[in-house]
Amino acid sequence: MKAKQDVAGRIRQRIKPENxxxxxxxxxxxxxxxxxxxERGWSQKEFAKRLGKHESEVSRWLSGLHNLxxxxxxxxxxxxxxxxxxxxxxxxxxxxxxx
Length: 99
Prior knowledge:
With 99 residues, this protein is an all-alpha fold. The chain has 6 helices and no strands.
């Protein structure tokens, strides 16, 4: 058991900080989307329909590991009617989404 923990620890130490940050940010975005879906009572299937996408594509987006583009995030924001990510500058002056 100790040997497995040592291996896992060595692997964790080799992970680049930018990769850790990527996974952390991606999971935070995914959690935000799931929260908004729950708030609206939408299933992933309904969300995909509103985006004009296949459910499998949206499922990949929401896996937490997919490299989301700004374009795909904005499309999701428009479909949800709410911002998913807010930059620090916007945080000071939050404006409603233009729909």
